[in-house]
Amino acid sequence: MSANDAPGDSGDAVAGEPDHDADPTDAFAVLGNEVRMAALRALLAAEREASPDADAALTFSELFEATPADETAGFAYHLRQLTDRFCRQTDDERYVLTYAGREVARAIRAGTYTDSVDVDPIPVDDPCPFCGAADLVARGTDNYVAIGCEACDRPTLTLPFPPGGHRGHARENLLEAFDRHHRHRLALLADGVCPECSAPAEARVGYRDDETTVDGGESWADATEAQDAAAGGVPRRPQVAFDCEHCGCQLRSPVTLSVLEHPAVVAFYHRHGVDVRDRPLWNVGEEWREQVVSEEPWCVRVSTRLDGDVLSLFVAENLEVVETRESSVKAS
Ligand SMILES: [Zn+2]
Ligand SMILES: [Zn+2]
Fold first, then answer.
1. Looking at the CA of 198, which ligand is closest?
2. Which of 11, 132, 145, 208 has its CA 20 to 30 A from that of 214?
């Protein structure tokens, strides 16, 4: 059990189709009450305070005491409304959170549904991937962070960051946390797992359709675009579109960003004394190139060059890296 796993809910694995019998309207209606919210908060607090080998279950009267309810009869009614969906009774008639109850209680505690954070502009240390100016600035509006260039006026990316991330990290660490958050989400997607709901996520490499680069409010401008334009490259850029049919999560990103965690990339950088994790998503370095090798079937060559050594990854339509090659262009 990891540190983040809460005790209480065991077993009950059910595979297969989602339970569409449960009506979300009913589920959310149950939550619209101060006493029930307080009960969920108390159950979550009990889990946090329980020692690793003690259980976090609360008795009826412990729960009653933790809420603003004034009589036990009324409280019993509220608790029945929560029971089986958001909490359940243990064999000794105490109460623990269910999976749904825990998710809701954590989201409420973290401000996911209620907290809107704006951030005063933060200067970014890295140069603009388009014009090279040291004028990148991050701005936060309503739980979204946009990084753009004051010199060439181009946005590099706009992505959400949960209020807990905004509130929890000191201002000087915020952008690093934001970068880590999205790298891991992207790595999960690249591994075929949706970061929102954990269902299978599909990846498809294709040309970017400029009219639909923003999906679900998440977008990356292509950090290698300017380099290719400068090199006389084609304006049509490949990108990867991620899609989770189960929850509707979508994201589009440059192909390069979705191979950053590939072992060949991590090892290549490590051998050259560079931790590739130090390269932020808004500027992974000017040494990266992308080239469409074939459209039928799709193959994109993503390459990077350090100290005269070149690493190339050949990426198929489903984002599988079908081949890696290393070569040296060192003058000797
Ligand atoms: Zn710029
Ligand atoms: Zn999903």
1. 2
2. 132
Percentage helix, strand, coil, to 5, in the chain?
Answer: 30, 25, 45
Break the chain into its structural domains and give their ranges: 9-110
Segment 287-297, tens digit of pLDDT: 999 999 999 99
pLDDT by residue (tens digit) across 137-170? 999 999 999 999 999 988 888 999 999 999 999 9
Sheet holding 155-160, edge to edge: 119-123, 136-141, 144-149, 155-160, 219-220
Judged on CB neighbours under 10 Å (0-12, 13-18, 19+), 97 is buried
**256 alpha carbon – ligand 1 mean position (Å):** 19
- Which stretches within the chain are classed as H helix? 24-31, 34-49, 60-65, 72-82, 99-110, 163-168, 174-190, 225-230, 255-258, 263-271
**Ligand 1 centroid vs 152 CA: distance in angstroms?**
4
Give the distance (Å) from ligand 1 centre to CA of residue 163. 28
- Ligand 1 center to residue 229 CA distance, Å? 14
What's the rounded mean pLDDT across residues 3-13?
43
Residue 130 C-alpha to ligand 1 middle, in angstroms? 5
CATH class held by domain 9-110: mainly alpha
Put simply, whether the predicted model's pTM sits higher than 0.85 gets the answer no
Ligand nearest to the CA of 216: 2
The amino acid present at 177, given as its one-letter code, is A
